Amino acid sequence: MKRLLTLIRREFWENKGALRTTPLIIGGIYIVFLLMSIFTTAHFDNELYTFREAVRLLAEQPAEFRAAHGEEVLLGSSIFFTIVLAFVVFFYLLGALYDDRKDRSILFWKSLPASDLLTVASKLLVAMVLAPLIFWVVFILTQVAMAIIASLMVLSVGENPWTLFLSVVNPLEAWFLLLASYLASSIWFLPIYGWLLLVSSFAPRIPLLFAVLPPVVFAILQVWIGFLRTFTLNSNLFGVIGEWVANSPAILSIGVHDGRGMLTLGAPINKDFDHAVTLANIFDRLFSVEMLAGLAVAAAFLAATLWLRRRATDS
Amino acid sequence: MTPIVSARGLTKRYGRTLAVDHIDLDIPPGRIVGLVGPNGAGKTSALKAILGLATYDGELSVLGKNPSRQRAALMEDVCFIADVAVLPRWIRVWQLLDITEGIHPRFSRERCLEYLALTKVTLDHKVKQLSKGMVAQLHLAVVMAIDARLLVLDEPTLGLDILYRKQFYTSLLNDYFDEERTILITTHQVEEIEHILTDLIFIRDGRIALQATMEEVENRYCELMVRPDRADEARALGPLYERELFGRHIFLYDNVSRERLAGLGELHTPSVADLFVATMKGGAS
């Protein structure tokens, strides 16, 4: 256990920029944008008259309305964090078993009595748990900071932020849902994580190319052969991966429901799953046949990864 | 005594070339073994097999373990430094110590800090800020602070200045080495390690060309320096190798009694470097 934690610390130190600085920068961008919009408003809005009116109108709405919308704003503002997190995890995994082979430091890491299983596990855990956790914490800190700034604004026009939104909107549920969605997505995307680790364990150079090219070539061949045989464009690997992302338990997009914007789990392009953002729907995906098939694929990729890592040296 | 390293028919293939060709080898505990061979002779391939870093054919047992299947367990008792600086460039020295301490049960932070105090390396340095020699010093400090039973050094002092090289081999001998420990060293600078070795292994074309203790080497081999007029007499005694230096002929003999040679000229014990050249060029072993 101590060894595993040490290996995870190593990953954090090595990838500090991606794992810590990146979410901090996004949080910073959020706050800068908020401040910029405040200055814009203050600049054009004479003595904040329009803003005062808007706040007053909002205060007149029923508390339920404010609570529901507040929660959607909280969750909806996570989408940018989520997308960047996906990129961070993607490139982290591509380099995870490649970088130390490239700079030959694998000879040092392999001189330590940590098994290759533990090494691979530490990298997978960073991608599945540590990275989402850090992004989640920074997201919460950003929202707290933004809530403080917004409260000061509301105070400055003579309204009470406590009764307006602080006491009405319960952020805990939104934060909890986001964390559940992050961790469930980590499991949902295991087949892709497994593939990326596999590529990073054998790619002689440019792992990105080795990760993307084979599936693309495979899918194009599928489309072509399918077309030759049936003159139709049937489902292929592109479709499978696309649907996989669309069905994921990540809070990803804004659909339209009953004439107003709504957050959705994944993208509501098919009816395989219920796309409403609820804990039940998140679990629904984890206990599905699709997930089982995905785990089988992931297990095969990870087993191959481990086999290759055991044999890996500097050349 | 059970050997630390025991190999039977150890073979390593890269495609169709044999890097290591059916080597039989036993290294007992408490020895300092020099593994010497020209570039591409198979030294590093053999070491990688011993360290569980490469697949191989044949039987190999290191400290009673199978290196290819039990690398992690083996590394609790084995330390190694590969031929060039391989410490990760992003790491800070204190992080390196934290990681080694967290993973290695036999690492002593105090000892490591003592060794580091002799260098210019500080805890806050990043490896990429250090010169090549300082990286080597850092790696050596970490490795010597690990209480291992087998230490494998593949060109450990490459890029180090002569002051530190001397200091390193002195502290290796005085502070580190004892009867329980075994050290396996490869280096091209044979003359620097010759005085600390207990055993010598020459390797050529993937095979062992010579394996002997230093005492055996001293007893078996003899170097004779003669004037040109007596060179034919000396040649008749079947030298392993002959060279000329300042008009003198120098012959190297294997297993020729010193009494028979003494009358012909000056007798010396050959240096490891001369013996190496003779063995590699002379063909016989």
Q: Which characteristics define this entry?
A:
heterodimer, A: 315 residues, mainly alpha, 2 domains, two-stranded antiparallel ribbon, 2 strands, 75% helix, 4% strand, B: 285 residues, alpha/beta, Rossmann fold, 6-stranded mixed β-sheet, 4-stranded antiparallel β-sheet, 13 strands, 33% helix, globular
Structural write-up:
The complex is a heterodimer of chains A (315) and B (285). Chain A is mostly helical. Helices cover 75% and strands 4% of the residues of chain A. Chain A is globular and about 70 Å long. Chain A has helices at residues 2-14, 16-44, 49-60, 63-76, 79-96, 99-102, 106-109, 116-156, 161-166, 171-188, 190-202, 207-230, 237-246, 279-286, 289-311, and strands spanning 251-257, 260-265. Chain A folds into two domains: 2-172, no CATH class; 207-311, no CATH class. The longest helix of chain A is centred in the middle third of the chain and has 41 residues, at 116-156. The two termini of chain A are 30 Å apart. Chain A has a two-stranded antiparallel sheet. The model of chain B has no long low-confidence stretch (mean pLDDT 86). In chain B, helix 4 (109-117) runs antiparallel to helix 5. Chain B folds into two domains: 29-45 and 71-197, Rossmann fold; 216-282. Chain B is globular. Chain B has a six-stranded mixed β-sheet with strand order 5-6-7-3-8-9, with helices on both faces. A four-stranded antiparallel β-sheet of chain B has the order 11-12-10-13. Chain B is α/β, with parallel strands linked by helices. Helices cover 33% and strands 28% of the residues of chain B. Chain B contains eleven helices and 13 strands. Chain B starts with a strand and ends with a helix.
